[in-house]
Design goal:
Helix content: 25-40%
Number of strands: 12
Strand content: 5-15%
Radius of gyration: 20 Å
Largest sheet: 8 strands, parallel, barrel
Distance between the termini: 15 Å
Strand order of the largest sheet: 3-4-5-8-9-10-11-12
């Protein structure tokens, strides 16, 4: 039996296979509100046969958006728009749906990637004041972020909890707290971006404090039937920055608090990063963390071939495989993987006529 197509439980959530569609920002929202683009995009991915679809990063407050066009989940309007976008997806798909909740911190207030992606200063069109653990910009010459004070930190925690409550009301079955890729929670974790001298800076236990507070608040805000986990960058790929050893400490702390999964990525915090990009380049990071926790671990990063994914699972490096850019390129990647590995996926009956002769056992 294929490892990739065996079932997996992430806490209370049961997946039919171990292919996870990782969050991918679409930069197509209207003041945080989901649009028709989201309905058709998510509808396409929900017919892929993957075990889980995690929606793109949704900002927990307006100033936490990466760009002005980012999805949000911070008020009634953004909640209603996302609910409308999900309605048709749910009507036609059986796939479990999750969402990533995020705050971009000092990497907020930028142009869309296809418009250059550069920082936009407060006062300019589509720009606003960004916040961070310390008044250190991401890129030299970027506008200075405002260091969060104690009240600001408390407000961020509540914003995550409030967004989680909205996600639960929408019937989303999983929440992923975004603590990776150089965004706010990662900024607090890394000594490269966190130069605070209070309870949230300095020692590792202090730099972890905000992430753990956010996780606890999100977990408490949603019913027990909603799975809650965290995405981390296991290393900054910069000397003196966040690394695997510290990631293991965080993973153990999250496991003790009831995290249902750890999604392991890397980088994004510092432009000096030196990343050895290649097929499966982040899998050793996931493997190192998996060796230290019982929590299911999702590996991601240039995992593009079905047998590559199968081998990662068979050798015990991870419990599930995250697919992102690859499934944008090939929205039927799980179908093709099932055909290659002799497994089955669910397909809508409207698509059953596409079965190739001799492969009638491909679809459930």
């Amino acid at each position: 039996m294929s490892h990739l197509f065996s079932p997996l439980s992430l806490g209370p959530l049961s997946l039919s296979n171990r292919i996870v569609i990782a969050p991918m920002c679409q930069y197509s929202a209207d003041e945080g509100r989901a649009t028709d683009w989201h309905a058709q995009h998510l509808g396409t991915l929900s017919q892929s046969g993957a075990g889980l679809l995690i929606l793109e990063a949704a900002a927990v407050e307006a100033r936490g958006r990466i760009s002005w066009a980012d999805l949000g989940l911070w008020d009634d309007a953004t909640e209603a728009a996302l609910g409308q976008a999900l309605a048709s997806v749910r009507r036609w798909s059986k796939m479990p749906l999750g969402i990533q909740l995020a705050h971009a911190g000092r990497k907020a207030s930028t142009a869309r990637p296809w418009d250059g992606g550069g920082a936009i200063a407060p006062g300019q069109a589509h720009g606003w004041q960004v916040v961070a653990p310390s008044a250190l910009p991401f890129n030299e010459g970027d506008p200075l972020p405002q260091a969060l004070d104690a009240a600001g930190i408390d407000a961020v925690v509540e914003a995550f909890a409030a967004a989680a409550r909205r996600a639960a009301r929408l019937g989303l079955e999983l929440i992923e707290v975004h603590a990776a890729h150089g965004y706010l929670l990662h900024q607090f974790l890394s000594p490269l971006s966190n130069r605070r001298d209070d309870d949230y800076g300095g020692l590792l236990e202090n730099r972890m404090r905000l992430l753990l507070r956010v996780f606890d608040a999100v977990r408490a805000a949603v019913p027990a039937g909603v799975a809650v986990g965290v995405r981390i960058s296991a290393t900054d790929w910069v000397d003196g920055g966040w690394d695997v050893a510290q990631s293991i400490v965080v993973a153990r702390a999250l496991e003790a608090r009831g995290s249902d999964f750890i999604h392991v990525s890397s980088g994004g915090l510092d432009p000096r990063q030196q990343i050895p990009v290649g097929p499966g380049y982040q899998v050793p990071l996931a493997s190192a963390i998996k060796a230290q926790v019982a929590t299911p671990v999702i590996a991601v990063g240039l995992i593009t071939e079905p047998r590559q994914a199968e081998t990662i699972l068979a050798e015990g490096h991870a419990d599930a495989i995250g697919i992102a850019r690859g499934i944008l390129y090939d929205p039927r990647w799980p179908w093709h993987a099932a055909a290659e590995l002799g497994a089955q996926v669910h397909a809508a009956p409207q698509y059953l006529r596409c079965q190739p002769h001799g492969l009638r056992e491909l679809f459930q």
